[in-house]
Amino acid sequence: MKIKTESSAKKKTSLLCGFVLENSNKVLGLPKFDSKTTASLNQSIKDMEGKLGKLNIIPLSGKNPVQRIMLAGLGKKENLTKDTIRFVSGKIAQKARELKLKEFSIITPPSFVNEPISSISQIIEGTKMALYKFDKFKAEKAESSPDLTIIVSKSNKISKAIKTSEIIANGAIFTKSIANLPPNECTPTTLANFAKTVSKKNKMKCTVFSEPELKKKGFGGISAVGQGSTNQPKLIILEHNRGPRNEKPIVLVGKAVTFDTGGISLKPGAAMDEMKFDKCGGCTVLGIMKAVSELKLPVNVVGIIPSVENMPGGESYRPGDIIKLYSGKTAEILNTDAEGRLILADALSYGEKHYSPKAIIDFATLTGACIVALGNNVAAIVSNDEKLKKKINEASKRTTEEVWELPLNQDYMDMIKSDVADMKNVGIGRAAGTITAAAFLKNAIEKTPWTHIDIAGVAWTQGATKEKSYNPKGATGFGVRLILDYLQNLKN
Ligand code: BES
Ligand code: MN
Ligand code: ZN
Fold it and tell me: Which of 59, 177, 265, 314 has a CA positioned 20 to 30 A from the CA of residue 76?
């Protein structure tokens, strides 16, 4: 899908799309057409009433450079969110593809609907993400994506916003496309190769630790979880260094369990296939790093991805084992299905020790309890730092990737105390499962501002996922837009 701009809406196009608010009698930003067209437009606006997500097509007469006009309902003005233009644009793009068009045009809504730059980025993110389809393993591929012309008065600011939005959308799509891969086609080694390819293309430094190096260096969590699989564990590190030379980096950590069977504490069979998405945290970090480097953001960012496959077998780690983490602390294993916190703890400690970062943010499909608590449309955050949390909350408001904070006080820390080791890898029964998992992670960090983002409910579409055009079935790339916004606004 190519994107260009055009200042006039009356240029040759097979489909000209404009937005309509509910209870309004006009298409936002549409210039005057001849009286016959205007009459059918007015009738069509009456028919569709600007209802949210509704699309209405009006064919125009042969001599018109515009072949069709499509009205896209935005719903009530007072209900507009920072997401409306995004998912309605996604619907428009999917319609254009369904009609097998080669190109289509969208009129940018005027500023009383949305700030123009924000509208542009929503149009681009919405259309691009909605047109992504995971069809790598199907003989019948999706129709090729139509090109987009955005109708807007041109300026340098607008062209820059377009480039930026395209990179951000591509980052999210990259995350989705890797996260959607089946576990037989995506092992820790595969992920390491993706990381190498991305970093080579965009001049990042990439380091990969494998066994036996991981063991030798003291990554006891990654080694223990990884030892049950013939697909060897990896620790993948990407470095983007475009900030001031001595400025401390932001470290991003992402859980990448390429398949989580639960290990010896085997999961029940139902929906186990979905545990191919247990690598989503790591994929999010990959997508962010790809975009950060393409945007050439003037910041230092490090991405750390601990990757394993959690399998049962003769060499697997077991309940009862006591392992030593990278921090030097010991952990009693009581459930091998609580594996994410073990590999993350190693990565967090490593990140803090080697980079003395300004902040650490981690992403993980960490707990089923997170879905019980917040459902499939909001991620949980747990943090040890007010300022960092505030910035992430602000980025969340701007991007509509929603987060909600859960508390973490000493009482929760006490819930993971072990009789025989420094801590245990589970809490007490099912009580506050998302928080006790975060408590385990907190023990891996000494002093750095840190925010943990549990994306178990939002990383892929599940039972209660709100339908959104730009998140078709499968991985959503949650966190990519959120953290890119955070990184772009670091200085504010
Ligand atoms: N990857 C799972 C968490 C998960 C489950 C995410 C379902 C999304 C959907 C994680 O490794 C896990 O198994 N966690 C356990 C922890 C428990 C054993 C303390 C869980 O949530 O049941
Ligand atoms: Mn698990
Ligand atoms: Zn897991």
Answer: 59
For the chain (492 residues), the mean pLDDT of every run of 10, in chain order, is 96 97 96 94 95 96 93 96 96 98 97 90 98 97 94 95 98 98 99 98 98 98 98 98 97 99 98 98 99 98 99 98 99 99 99 98 98 98 98 98 98 98 98 99 98 99 98 98 97 75
Ligand 1 atom showing the smallest separation from residue 427 Cα: 19
Q: Cα separations (Å) of 75 from 144, 169, 374, 397?
A: 30, 25, 26, 20
Residue 307 token pair: 């990757």
End of a domain among 111, 132, 150? 150
Identify the three-state secondary structure at position 168: helix
- Tally Cβ neighbours within 10 Å of residue 488: 17
Cβ–Cβ < 8 Å for 307, 192: yes
Residue 491 has what pLDDT?
Answer: 83
Q: How far is the CA of 338 from the centre of ligand 1 (A)?
A: 6
141 and 279 in a single domain? The answer is no
Cβ atoms within 10 Å of 273's Cβ, excluding its own: 11
Residue nearest to atom 8 of ligand 1 (CA): 456
Do 335 and 264 lie in one domain? The reply is yes
For the chain, how many structural domains are there in total? Answer: 2
Question: What residues line ligand 1, using a CB cutoff of 6 Å?
Answer: 260, 278, 335, 337-340, 365-369, 426, 433, 456
d(CA 337, ligand 1 centre) in Å: 7
Ligand 1 atom closest to 277 (CA):
8
- Residue ranges with CB less than 5 Å from ion ligand 2: 260, 337, 339
Q: Are residues 398 and 478 in the same domain?
A: yes
Residue 29 sits in the same domain as residue 133: yes
Does 341 participate in catalysis according to the annotation? yes
Is residue 28 located within the same domain as residue 129? Answer: yes
Has residue 104 been placed in a domain?
Answer: yes
| CATH number, position 8 | 3.40.220.10
Let me know if 267 is a catalytic residue.
yes
- The 3-state secondary structure of 88-129 reads HHHHHHHHHHHCCCCEEEEECCCCCCCCHHHHHHHHHHHHHH
- Identify which ligand lies nearest to the alpha carbon of 263: 2
User: Does the residue 83 lie in any domain?
Assistant: yes
Is residue 121 located within the same domain as residue 198? no
Domain with 20, as residue range(s), is 3-150
Catalytic residue among 267, 324, 358, 398: 267
